[in-house]
Amino acid sequence: MSERKRANQEHRGIFAAKRRFLSRRAGGTTAKGANLVKVTIAGAAGAGLAYMFDPARGRRRRAELKDRGRATLRRQVRAVERQASYGKGRAEGTIHRLRHPRPHVPEDDLTLADKIRSEVLGRFDGPHLTIDVSSRVVTLRGQVRDDQAIRDIEREVRGTPGVSDVVNLLHTPGTPAPNKADALKSET
């Protein structure tokens, strides 16, 4: 026998011994481990069947399992329907925006004021702000929390379709309104 064949046989023998050692250490041979798994599964299935077909309470358990299964199925169907409805709404909105790319411009000043209240000022939390619209010129009055909010509100109102100009009289707490500042300076 050649030197190479003898080395291969010794090599295979070492690995075979190692596999036998590890399988014994794990609780037996591989076939015994597979049999243990099968026995465990069969025992669990038997216990489940005995639980479901118990003469005393089996009917109630089966009815409860059936009811829970149907309820789960109903919930899943509703979730899929909600997702489909949401997707349909998103698609319809996209189609609408593609067909009507220009935003709707309100016909009169009252409608424009309502549009600004609902679409622009609804995004800003804070105290009540007064909006006056005359000939598409929007006048903003009121007190807001900081200068950044004043700039944001004015920018949003200017971007609203139908607004030709904005008169900004907003002010922060502790400062007079811009239209009252000159009057207050002359009093002192």
Written account of the structure:
By secondary structure, the chain is mostly helical. Among the domains are: 3-52, no CATH class; 109-187, Histidine-containing Protein, Chain: A, CATH 3.30.1340.30. Helix content is 63%, strand content 11%. It has 6 helices and 3 strands; from the N terminus they run H-H-H-H-E-E-H-E-H. A 3-stranded mixed β-sheet has the order 1-2-3. A hairpin with a 2-residue loop joins strand 1 and strand 2 (137-143). It is elongated, with a radius of gyration of 39 Å. The N and C termini lie far apart (119 Å).
Question: Quick gist of this model?
Answer:
Among the domains are: 3-52, no CATH class; 109-187, Histidine-containing Protein, Chain: A (2-Layer Sandwich), CATH 3.30.1340.30.
Biggest β-sheet strands, sense, barrel:
3 strands, mixed
Assign the CATH class of the domain at 109-187. Answer: Alpha Beta
Instruction: Summarize model confidence as the mean pLDDT.
Output: 84
Radius of gyration: 39 Å
Provide the CATH topology of the domain at 109-187: Histidine-containing Protein, Chain: A
Name the shape in a single word: elongated
Main sheet strand line-up: 1-2-3
Instruction: Give the SSE order as H and E letters.
Output: HHHHEEHEH
CATH architecture tag of the domain at 109-187? 2-Layer Sandwich
| Total beta-strand segments | 3
Structural class: mainly alpha
Give the % helix.
55-70%
Distance between the termini: 119 Å
Instruction: Show unreliable segments.
Output: none
Please work out how many helical segments DSSP would assign.
6
Report the β-strand fraction as a percent range. 5-15%
